[in-house]
């Protein structure tokens, strides 16, 4: 089970947009490349930020696999026992966003009359400039105590949850028609009894993936493997689910059996005609292959069950308690015998139908309950990430100009082969550049520390000689990190933390990027899944 938390009430609607934009628009084009290389935009000034009450966005869950297992939901790091402010999750989330074009997008949405709100931020950053030296490794940043999150108090939350809530609230309260982080996922469920298929499309802020949970030392998979698992066809978990087509087939069978007994005393000429009419209606619906969810249809074909009188002391006054129990058992058996069994087993599959400009991959890191202390142990299996990722083979629908009814997911018959063939013939790619990595350090999800590894920000207007520079944003300090360490053998390049989310930004079509065998990377990096798994 996930850890329970209590969210405070939302802040003032009138001031939320100004306050969030005040934080997220610190990526400014007013600094030279050298100054910006040292300042690291996205550092948090002393402003108040209010987060809306309610549950965070939750992406679709994956299917069962020996290497994977369902997590309890978005993991929320437990509150601190100390009264000292602990807002590392907030800084991690904001730094992750500041590494993308999200802050610039928010700035373009600001009304002209609100331009004054950016001046305090500019002054705040200007104060730091005289203390910068290009040769210095560390960069000063505002301390935790300088940041006010009045309505959150001392309770700590997840960095991914913060990003989700901020984006949803900004889009909703400001009436934005576009959403830089919204992706769409198609879910296909198929009844294993009759073959009926349902299609549902849902919008999410993050795409939730699962890490492998097999207890094996040194187990690692890459991002593509996690995406393949997310998109594969598998059994749908939970109890049996109603299938409308199975119900219609059951009703059709009952009506057919009734017509074979026309001499039954309860069947009149009119009732036989009604049975035939309903049977013909069901036959036409089954042949048409509709979704069988029309309420008018069910009103026409529903059956009136024979009612049984529930045995009670009133209608069986002479029966003893034991005899009454026997009558009740017979009553339940009669009702159950005439009930139509419509529970079915299902398969399910997911596929991405629309990718956003800024894509957040969120990984479930909860492992098993520890016997000692009753805490949730973190999943220590590793996911290997690369500087760029091609999502072409994981997307269906309009973005690939394919019919989702024919090719829904990779792993379906003809799905992966057809996708690879289309990619090789057209040369199309959906390249995303990794912009930031959100890491949580600590033995379990009860307590710990959030840090962010982020790439140098994008700059389309000016030449940026340090675009490949990576930084470790850790609470009150920011440190240069070699690229080779970021893409080394650990999720947390500096320590033994666990990666919780990867933030990508979509590259323009035809963009020239360095491949994943960059000279700055270590010579031996295990990018592939172990063959012995």
TrEMBL record:
GO terms for cellular component: cytosol; nucleus. It catalyses: Thiol-dependent hydrolysis of ester, thioester, amide, peptide and isopeptide bonds formed by the C-terminal Gly of ubiquitin (a 76-residue protein attached to proteins as an intracellular targeting signal). Keywords: Hydrolase, Protease, Thiol protease, Ubl conjugation pathway. It comes from the Eukaryota. The keyword Zinc does not apply. It is an enzyme of class 3 (hydrolase). Pfam families: UCH (PF00443). GO terms for molecular function: cysteine-type deubiquitinase activity. Gene3D superfamilies: Cysteine proteinases. Its EC number is 3.4.19.12. This is ubiquitinyl hydrolase 1.
């Amino acid at each position: 089970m996930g850890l329970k938390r209590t969210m405070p009430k939302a802040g003032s609607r009138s001031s939320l947009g100004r306050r969030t934009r005040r934080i997220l628009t610190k990526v400014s084009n007013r600094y030279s490349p050298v100054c910006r290389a040292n300042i690291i935009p996205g550092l948090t000034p002393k402003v108040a930020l209010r987060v809306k009450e309610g549950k965070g966005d939750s992406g679709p869950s994956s299917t069962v696999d020996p290497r994977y297992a369902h997590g309890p939901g978005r993991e929320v790091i437990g509150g601190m026992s100390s009264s000292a402010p602990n807002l590392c999750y907030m800084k991690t989330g904001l730094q992750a966003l500041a590494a993308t074009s999200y802050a610039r997008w928010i700035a373009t949405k600001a009304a002209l009359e609100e331009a004054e709100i950016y001046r305090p931020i500019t002054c705040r950053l200007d104060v730091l400039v005289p203390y910068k030296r290009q040769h210095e490794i560390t960069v000063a940043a505002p301390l935790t105590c300088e940041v006010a999150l009045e309505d959150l108090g001392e309770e700590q939350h997840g960095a991914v949850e913060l990003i989700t809530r901020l984006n949803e609230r900004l889009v909703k309260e400001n009436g934005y028609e576009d959403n830089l982080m919204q992706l769409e996922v198609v879910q296909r469920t198929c009844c294993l009894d009759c073959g009926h298929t349902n299609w549902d499309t849902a919008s999410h802020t993050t795409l939730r993936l699962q890490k492998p949970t097999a207890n094996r030392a040194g187990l690692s998979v890459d991002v593509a493997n996690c995406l393949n698992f997310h998109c594969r066809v598998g059994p749908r978990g939970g109890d049996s689910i109603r299938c409308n087509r199975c119900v219609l087939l059951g009703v059709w069978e009952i009506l057919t059996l009734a017509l074979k007994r026309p001499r039954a005393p309860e069947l009149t000429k009119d009732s036989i005609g009604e049975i035939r009419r309903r049977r013909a209606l069901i036959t036409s619906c089954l042949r048409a292959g509709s979704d069988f969810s029309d309420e008018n249809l069910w009103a026409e074909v529903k059956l009136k069950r024979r009612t049984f009188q529930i045995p009670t002391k009133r209608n069986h006054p002479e029966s003893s308690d034991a005899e009454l129990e026997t009558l009740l058992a017979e009553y339940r058996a009669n009702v159950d015998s005439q009930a139509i069994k419509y529970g079915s087993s299902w398969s399910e599959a997911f596929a991405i139908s629309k990718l956003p400009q800024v894509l957040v991959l969120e990984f479930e890191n909860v492992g098993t309950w520890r016997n000692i202390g009753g805490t949730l142990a973190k999943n220590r299996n590793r996911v290997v990430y690369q500087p760029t990722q091609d999502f072409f083979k994981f997307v269906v629908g309009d973005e690939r100009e394919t019919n989702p009814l024919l090719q829904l997911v990779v792993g379906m018959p003809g799905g992966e082969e057809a996708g690879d063939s289309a990619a090789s013939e057209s040369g199309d790619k959906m390249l995303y550049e990794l912009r930031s990595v959100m890491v949580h350090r600590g033995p379990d999800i009860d307590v710990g520390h959030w840090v962010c590894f982020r790439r140098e920000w994008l700059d389309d207007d000016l030449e940026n000689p340090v675009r490949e520079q990576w930084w470790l944003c850790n609470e009150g300090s920011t440190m240069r990190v070699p690229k080779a360490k970021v893409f080394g053998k650990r999720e947390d390049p500096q320590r033994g933390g666990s990666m919780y989310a990867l933030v990508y930004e979509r590259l323009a079509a035809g963009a020239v990027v360095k491949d994943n065998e960059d000279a700055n990377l270590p010579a031996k990096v295990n990018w592939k899944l172990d063959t012995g798994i």
